[in-house]
């Protein structure tokens, strides 16, 4: 949900009239009755009247066609590879901002939807892993003997990976974290996990790793394949917006894992970090189960919405000046997140 009751009050305090679609927030835990000083209407009326449309995912073609020229659309618009959608935004003379395009700077942190939703995804991915694994995560001492803790490896130590590591630790698993960026070691170890050292470094810029050379990838995969033989659960989180997810786990590496092992591929929407991942599907190969869950933040809709709605409001404040919508394109955050404006394409990636 792009506007929660808490954020609706903040929008109103800025002099903004709020018009919501009936029951838009009910599934996320926000019934209409939870909103104060807000108007409700059907979807068509909302679209016809909106000066600024706040959304979670891109509106469909029919919805975009109902917006008035000059209206502003803010949300996760997924512009990479969406030439038809961008063309429609331009043809309709809509001003649109995709929050995934915000630069990864300190000033942008309060509106960084990639980070807020990745935190939810990392948490949910590890819960899915704990439920799907045939083993207990923690060590248990029972009358039938002692059960050793599961060995869990999280690949990728970004926001999602760190949240997955923290969740695995809370569940009592013996946890390791791996990332080709050496600067993440301290973050992994601060959560009580062991940093897996494979002898390959790919420090990049903007918070992302650079692409590995063929020699570096071969060395990484050889060392990783040997280590995976003892792992019970792997959660992979390596992704860069707008690019296919890097292939880290090959079919041969999966075949070398022990029967009953589990892989949860959080990068499934980008094609997956595992060669065998099928987005949205459960795959079993050589006794190993590979899960490719999609839209993980939707599994914790209340808190995901609370964080997302704060991100949207914080960005929205950049667009409001003296009670009116007046985007300042001299502002780096506004300029770099803009997809379309005044009948022109502003997204150049």
UniProtKB/TrEMBL annotation:
CDD domains per the UniProt record, alphabetical: Rubrum_tdh
Annotated Alanine dehydrogenase/pyridine nucleotide transhydrogenase N-terminal domain residues: 2-121
Alphabetically ordered keywords of this record: NAD, NADP, Nucleotide-binding, Translocase
Protein name: proton-translocating NAD(P)(+) transhydrogenase
Pfam family, one: AlaDh_PNT_C
A single GO cellular-component term on record: plasma membrane
GO biological process, one term: NADPH regeneration
PANTHER family assigned to the protein according to its UniProt record, in alphabetical order: NAD(P) TRANSHYDROGENASE, PROTON-TRANSLOCATING NAD(P)(+) TRANSHYDROGENASE
Reactions listed under catalytic activity: NAD(+) + NADPH + H(+)(in) = NADH + NADP(+) + H(+)(out)
EC number: 7.1.1.1
Organism: Rhodanobacter fulvus Jip2
Top-level EC class: translocase
GO terms for MF: NADP binding; proton-translocating NAD(P)+ transhydrogenase activity
Taxonomic superkingdom: Bacteria
Coiled-coil segments: none
InterPro entries cross-referenced by the UniProt entry: AlaDH/PNT_N, AlaDH/PNT_NAD(H)-bd, NAD(P)-bd_dom_sf
Domain named Alanine dehydrogenase/pyridine nucleotide transhydrogenase NAD(H)-binding: residues: 130-292
Role noted for this protein: The transhydrogenation between NADH and NADP is coupled to respiration and ATP hydrolysis and functions as a proton pump across the membrane.
């Amino acid at each position: 949900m792009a506007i929660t009751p808490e954020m609706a009050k903040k929008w109103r305090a800025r002099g903004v009239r709020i018009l919501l679609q009936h029951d838009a927030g009910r599934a996320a835990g926000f019934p209409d009755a939870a909103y104060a000083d807000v108007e409700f209407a059907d979807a068509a009326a909302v679209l016809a009247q909106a000066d600024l449309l706040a959304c979670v995912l891109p509106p469909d073609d029919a919805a975009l066609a109902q917006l008035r020229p000059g209206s502003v659309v803010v949300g996760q618009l997924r512009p990479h590879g969406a030439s038809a959608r961008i063309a429609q935004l331009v043809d309709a003379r809509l001003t649109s901002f995709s929050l995934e395009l915000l630069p990864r700077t300190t000033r942008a942190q309060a509106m960084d939807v990639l980070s807020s939703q990745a935190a939810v995804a990392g948490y949910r991915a590890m819960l899915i892993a704990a439920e799907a694994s045939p083993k207990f995560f923690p060590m248990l001492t029972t009358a039938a003997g002692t059960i050793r803790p599961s060995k869990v490896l999280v690949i990728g130590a970004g926001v999602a990976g760190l949240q997955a590591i923290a969740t695995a630790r809370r569940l009592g698993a013996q946890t390791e974290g791996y990332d080709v960026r050496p600067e993440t070691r301290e973050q992994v170890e601060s959560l009580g996990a062991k940093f897996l050292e494979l002898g390959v470094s790919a420090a990049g810029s903007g918070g992302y790793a650079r692409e590995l050379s063929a020699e570096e990838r071969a060395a990484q995969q050889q060392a990783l394949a040997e280590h995976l033989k003892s792992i019970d659960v792997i959660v992979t989180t390596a992704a860069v917006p707008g690019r296919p997810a890097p292939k880290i786990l090959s079919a041969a590496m999966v075949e070398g894992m022990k029967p009953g092992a589990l892989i949860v591929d959080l990068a499934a929407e980008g094609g997956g970090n595992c060669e065998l991942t099928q987005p949205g599907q459960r795959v079993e190969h050589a006794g190993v189960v590979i899960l490719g869950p999609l839209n993980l933040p939707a599994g914790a809709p209340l808190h995901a919405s609370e964080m997302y709605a704060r991100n949207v409001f914080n960005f929205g404040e950049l667009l409001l000046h003296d009670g009116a919508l007046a985007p300042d394109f001299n502002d780096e955050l506004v300029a770099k997140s803009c997809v379309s404006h005044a009948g022109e394409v502003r997204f150049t990636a």
